[in-house]
């Protein structure tokens, strides 16, 4: 299993949440599933799972969407890691991120959870924060809107026009992270600041 990666898309189960900003991680996993070719199946760890390869002869991936609510994502993730015999160094969490603008992708390893309860629960269940993340920017809530209200809303009309490209870019970031590592993903998706 040394060439296998566990890629987890965070979100909430149920049709009423499927278009929420909080579910963008699962949207990315659905897109990756199209690339891998196959469909998700129910796994005993309370997750939907697709086991396949990124391209012919490419790295083996286990794409997983926890079927628990976001705040208790850790149990299914830890269960999958144990079931597939994978260490935390082979875990990638794909999730919404309010601290970066909409239409922005960032890759990182470890660090804080920034108030993201799904990440916090994964860190608790895995016993470490040192796993890879693909952060999909959904922007900050406007005005005095509560963060929870913002992430549990569907993307707006203008955002939905850009969403397919954002999801495609996030899937590209996952593939690059798996194939070439964190530095390559950061170099592509973290544009350096231009000096005027």
Can you characterise this structure?
With 196 residues, this protein is α/β, with parallel strands linked by helices. The protein has one domain (4-189): Rossmann fold (3-Layer(aba) Sandwich). It is 36% helix and 21% strand. The protein has six helices and seven strands, in the order E-H-E-E-E-H-E-E-H-E-H-H-H. The protein has helices at 24-36, 74-84, 117-126, 147-151, 157-180, 182-189, and strands at 4-9, 41-43, 47-53, 60-66, 91-97, 105-109, 132-137. It has a seven-stranded mixed beta sheet with strand order 2-3-4-1-5-7-6, with helices on both faces. Helix 1 (24-36) crosses helix 5 (157-180). The chain is globular. The termini are far apart.
Which features does this protein show?
196 residues, alpha/beta, Rossmann fold, seven-stranded mixed β-sheet, 6 helices, 21% strand, globular
